[in-house]
Structure formats: structure tokens, C-alpha cells
């Protein structure tokens, strides 16, 4: 089987890039059957970001509505929603399931 250069559109930045015959050969030798979905630049960026993770989570300082202790939550707390520390969160969860 011979390989030919192929133009693919990057699913990330929508730029088209060339999936070269050499790369295809390399892919095949590795046993990959899927074509790359992203251009080399985007692949690099993702690698630098740590793969497919959604990026580092920003922790927001908050005060637990139950015990009043300072805590950190991985989301922006909303005013109409109480924020709990891990301990109280576990408690409220248990309470609700009853
Ligand atoms: Zn790209
Ligand atoms: Zn608490």
C-alpha cells in the first residue's frame, strides 16, 4: 500500500494541513487507523496543556454555608446557591439521600 499526501482540516483551528505520506506511513507502522484531527500546531498546544484535560481548574475562595469555614471550590459560587466545604458537602449529600 502506498501513501499519498493528504489535506486535512484541523478540527481545532480549521486550518488545513498536510498529512504527509511519511506521516501516514508512520501512523500505519504504529497501528493507528485514525487520521489526525488536528494540525501539528494544535497538537503541540494540546500536549503542552497536558493532553485532553480541560485545563487547570481555577479554585475560588468561598465560605462554607454550613460551618462558616473558609474553603475553595472549583467553580464560581453563585449567590443563590450555598457553598459547602468538602466535609459539609458530604454531609448534605448524605442527608439528601435519606
Ligand atoms: Zn489547528
Ligand atoms: Zn463546612
Quick rundown:
The chain has 98 residues and is α+β, with helices and mostly antiparallel strands. 33% of the residues lie in helices and 16% in strands. The chain folds into two domains: 6-49, no CATH class; 60-97, no CATH class.
The structural class is alpha+beta
Low-confidence stretches: none
Order of helices and strands: EEHHEEH
What gyration radius follows from the Cα positions, in whole Å?
Answer: 23 Å
Number of domains: 2
The main sheet comes to: 2 strands, antiparallel
The amount of beta strand, in percent, is 15-25%
By DSSP, the count of extended strands is: 4
Count, helices:
3
Neighbour order of strands in the largest sheet: 1-2
Report the mean per-residue pLDDT as an integer. 86
C-alpha end-to-end distance: 63 Å
Which small-molecule ligands are present, each listed once? zinc ion
| Range of helix content | 25-40%
Amino acid at each position: 500500500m502506498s501513501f499519498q499526501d493528504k489535506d486535512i482540516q484541523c478540527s481545532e483551528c480549521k486550518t488545513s494541513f498536510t498529512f504527509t505520506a511519511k506521516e501516514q506511513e508512520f501512523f500505519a507502522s504504529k497501528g493507528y487507523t485514525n487520521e489526525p484531527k488536528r494540525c501539528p500546531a494544535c497538537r503541540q498546544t494540546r500536549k503542552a496543556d497536558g493532553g485532553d484535560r480541560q485545563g487547570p481548574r481555577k479554585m475560588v475562595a468561598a465560605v462554607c454555608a454550613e460551618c462558616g469555614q473558609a474553603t475553595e471550590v472549583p467553580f464560581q459560587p453563585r449567590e443563590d446557591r450555598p457553598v459547602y466545604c468538602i466535609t459539609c458537602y458530604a454531609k448534605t449529600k448524605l442527608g439528601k439521600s435519606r
